[in-house]
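name: query_chain
kind: protein
chains: 1
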Amino acid sequence: MLVTAEKHAEFCASNITTEKYMAWSKHFANLFNELLDMIIDAKTILVENIIKASALISDIQLLTKSVPYQDELVDMTDDLYVWVSITPCGYVLRDFFAPPE
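structure:
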């Protein structure tokens, strides 16, 4: 069976992971982007930005536990860890978003 570009796009659009990411991103992308803007050379945060970066990380961790998704509040902690781990710009932050064991 040949998979057309249209069918592939339908699959991607209906993918639960994509939908969950879009829901998370709709509410918290601005906080995460603000945090990413503080990173220099893919691994360094200036000392004067440490308190703000720490507050952003705490806020993102807390808010990610209650993301509005399909008329419910969903804990996306595990999902966020995966998204951060596979994103080149966010990879350095992955340990801050590791789910509790």
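note: The beta strands are 39-40, 44-45, 67-69, 72-74.
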